[in-house]
Design goal:
six-stranded mixed beta sheet, 4 helices, 162 residues, alpha+beta, elongated, 60s Ribosomal Protein L30, Chain: A
Length: 162
């Protein structure tokens, strides 16, 4: 499931990390890399994209089995400690960003990708939900804990033909 949005408004608020995510979620980073390869090798767009930031996060819905709530929390966790101030230095604005989000949850079809995209205030946002994450069943009853992982990747066009 994928959604594409153009963000507007004012700001509201590593390799080692990628290796840790790969270890924790076997197969997830390969799917992220395949997806990003598709985006950056898009023949309809003659400009190459340059990856600038990679952030990872985790979100949990403790009661209710709400994959969207867990996904939104994962994105919030990924971006919570970031303030991107390098745009002027490279002659860009926050509106020039491409923000590609991959959410890993046990039931990707249960994620409202449009709601997740609203967690990101800037850029052209693409959200894709893939199988992953974790669901921990309750000892009794039908409730369970849903854990989502998020990879938030920010890229810019380098203004040079690919």
């Amino acid at each position: 499931m994928t959604a594409l949005f153009q963000g507007e408004g004012e700001n509201r608020g590593g390799d080692e990390a990628a290796q840790n995510l790969t270890s924790a979620l076997p197969g997830t980073m390969e799917r992220v890399d395949d997806y990003l390869s598709h985006i950056t090798n898009n023949t309809e767009n003659p400009m190459a994209r340059v990856r600038c930031i990679t952030e990872m996060g985790m979100g949990v819905d403790v009661h209710g089995r709400d994959a969207t709530k867990a996904a939104k929390r994962a994105v919030s966790d990924a971006i919570r400690h970031s303030s991107l101030g390098f745009f002027r230095m490279v002659g860009k604005t926050s509106k020039d960003m491409f923000v590609d989000v991959t959410i890993a949850v046990p039931s990707p079809e249960a994620v409202d990708t449009a709601a997740v995209a609203k967690e990101l205030p800037y850029g052209t946002v693409t959200v894709t939900a893939v199988k992953g994450g974790l669901e921990i069943p309750a000892e009794q009853g039908s409730d369970s804990i849903v854990i989502a992982n998020a990879a938030v990747i920010v890229s810019l066009e380098d203004d040079k033909p690919a």
